Amino acid sequence: MTSGGAGGAGGDGGVRGAFEAAAGLSGGARRAYLDSLAARDPAVCREVVELLAYHDTGGGVLDVGAAGAAAMLTPTAGPGAGAESPMPERVAGYAVIREIGRGGMGVVYEARQDYPARRVALKVVRPGMVGPSLVRRFAHEAETLAMLQHPGIAALYGAGFVDGDHARPYMAMELVEGERLDVYGRSRGYGVREWLTLVSRVCEAVDHAHRRGVVHRDLKPANILVTGDGQPKVLDFGIARLTAMDGPGGEGVTAATVVGQVIGTVGYMSPEQLSGDPGQIDSRCDVYALGVILYEVLSGRRPVDLTGLSMAEASAAVRTRDAAPLGRLDPALRGDVEAVVGKALEREAGARYQSAAELASDLRRCLSDEPVQARPLTAWYQAAKFARRHRAVVGIAGAGLAVLAGATVLLAWQVGVSRRNEARAEREALAAKDALARAKETSAFLDEMISASTPEVEQGRQSTVREMLDVASARLMSREGMHPMAAADAHRSIGAAYGSLGEYARAATHYVEALRGFEAGLGPGAEVTLGVRVSLAIALTYLERYDESEACLVAGLSAASGLDEDHPVKIRLRSAWAFNHGDRPGVDLQESYDLHRAVWERAARVFGAESELAEKEKLNTAVMATRLKRYDESERWLTEIVDRRTRDLGPDHPETLLALSNLLSVYDNRGETARAASMAEDLYGRSSRVLGATHPGTLIRLRNSVFAYARTGELGRALGLTDRLVEGMRERHGEGHRDAIAALGLKANILVALGRGAEAEPIGAEVYRLSERHFGAGSEEVFRAVSLMYDLSQARKDRAAQRAWAERLRGTPVGAEAFRQLEEDERRDREGG
Amino acid sequence: MSGEVQSEVTTLLSAAARGEAGATDRLFPLVYEELRRMAGALMSREARGHTLQPTALVHEAYVRLVGPGGDGGAVSWENKAHFFGAAARAMRRILIDHARRVRAARSSAASGGEAGAELPTLGSGVTGGGVSGDRAADDLVLLDGALESLRTRDERQHEVVMYRFFGGLTIEQTAGVMGLSAATIKNEWSFARAWLLREMDGRRGGAVS
Description:
With 833 residues, chain A is an alpha+beta fold.
């Protein structure tokens, strides 16, 4: 063997170097590197990604070395060799009875422990499979595992080394006689409910281990046996880690025996586990695996189909592909089950359930028809849930009219009968009398709406929730003969759902209907009625219909004059009032600040300082303080809110991100543009992960990042982000949407500022074309496109074109400025030339 | 072990160290013969429980063929490098031949109806299904072919794999034998490993699941 050629990389081009660089990175840093590589050289990137997939996973035979390979060959070194494998008579304190399984890692025997006398599963690791570092930590790991005492976990009874040979650890485990989880349920014809029940019990066992710091890392149906009495038992807890060995070079290598064998397990591995970075492995990997198991038992398919894929493709597929929503495979799984499994299968660990216990809770909620955590708590959804849960109750005679009445009203607002207002109490009691009929009707309507959703509807996706809502909205509007209270309930729910999607115009339409119904049925002073007024006023404010919003609130406050200022509905009315006030242009900032602050303090006293309303008002007060340039105040409050939300909701929760976004604007306004810019991009990144790359909030933060960099003069970076902004806006809203066009215009502007006007030319033309096509002559969009074309012609010193475009702007302040600049430019041309 | 062989090995090692053409090639059959004999004994059933550790085996063979390595620096690292190179090649041939025999035995015994039967499952790495031996044999044969492709693309990486995998040397030992830094070896190994795995998968036809 001669010494190899210098340079080595040879025909690999840049692959070798890029691979080395990427292999040294993990997580986000690696993704970022690969992104930039993809932009520079997609072909190289593709190959590197493929190689990394192999780099990151167990290398099978290559990792066990020739020694391990030889050891593997040995026992099957001939036909029928398996049967004649040597079986030790005794291992430590165990008498071996028979072999019950074998694999790359070793052999499993049924054995009898001497003391206490019991049958055990004795797992003896094959020589050559274990690195020195395992030997060092073996005892410690074994102790940790022995602490796992749970009926759902096969216990570890003992561990040690065969004959004191440190190359051959053994483990004595509880001998479980049962069937594989999937086989067990299938052979008993399990339906959705049975599966959910069974898997939720597995989740509880897994959670027990997680609480003791033990992650399974290799959960799959084959590792979960169900005993004859229906008790699921998770096998091999912590064994994956215990048997993780160090390669000779010290690089951590999992004990995946042979390449092909790994692939069976890849399907249950989370993307971060596949990334090969041990630092990323935590209990959420197990949550992912549980999600795969659920998906598989419920649909009979793996979330990501790996059939026929090579190792690299399989690994890449798990990391890049989203599972088809369960509901698409089986309409019966649409809704909660689909949402719950989907949340467990999120590719980003942060978006998953953060513990197996959370997953178990949601599975139980599915079973009891309660709202699940996995779905956004829109009033619409809660109402639907309520209706379904109470369908049974509705039929029960004497179930208690008061309960039902209260529950139905809960659809609209949490409310009790006021003790102070006798007249209203009487009216509400009257209303309660036909509550039974109402509840029936509301639930029937909502059910109909749910079943009316088309097969394409995927829960949790805004666009399709939207479709469902539109159907519901249209039907409700045209429906006649519905009980007025039931109709009002439904209007309110649909209004709230539109509101949560940011569709305030439609929300307002439904709130108006709801208000009319409740006002007639319950009276203007009823809490339900007042609650609808609050929602309507907020929607109108968003729509910048400030006067209507104010009128709505004035009527509400006058109807609520009998209520104590500390009454929840009264506080909400005041909160909406402050919001309406502060949002108006030309607002008296100090007055608005005072209004918000008063509501904040009251809400903090009545509901608690960390209550939702108090914190929302604190945030609003802080925003006003920012606008009043009282940055120290706003910074302090916003930091407190960010800290509180980070602590209780997590750093990536949408509410946390919202508070951060406001904190960022404090820095920006205070002139700390660099700090703001660095935060802006980070915030964008997190929003993108949490909300999705094309969520409106994410896109706004992306745009803010572009602006922030533009302000710090880092035009290059700003430009780097604009492509994503353009793509995001187009994907979200379509290329003809005003925000998509504006993003394109922004890109052109930045290019001009960078002195790269030539590159901006075609973009400008595109902006113009799109604006004209989608908005038509005379529209604001076309006007803006024209002024962009003016800028472009100015940049290339084409005075004739500049004049032509200025003509199109004539008669407006922008036009006047355009002509002024043109004259200036021409004067400078004459002087310069 | 005859004194003749021992002296011949020593002579060849010295010749190889002087850069004499063909010395290493002539070294190979001697080392191979000795290793095969030792490995054969280890892989047979009477020696079960022992580990076929290439490093240990090669060291033992070295001592047998050349004499104790530590005797007054009589054997230079360079000599050892040639020996390890030959030994790694020998190990490769021994293992691959063995793997081929396992495969041949399997296909001649393939009439048994047990192949699809599902064994009770006992967890990570020890899942039933009787994978390891057959798969290891398949993988070794695939590795052999992939390694040949690697040699034509990048001889140095090929050499690293030979030392690391078939010679059982650590990163540091490989660095010592090849006269390169440990960091370089680590990088070469890392890339070669990924490249080989992909190549093996390609040769497998991507039909595993």
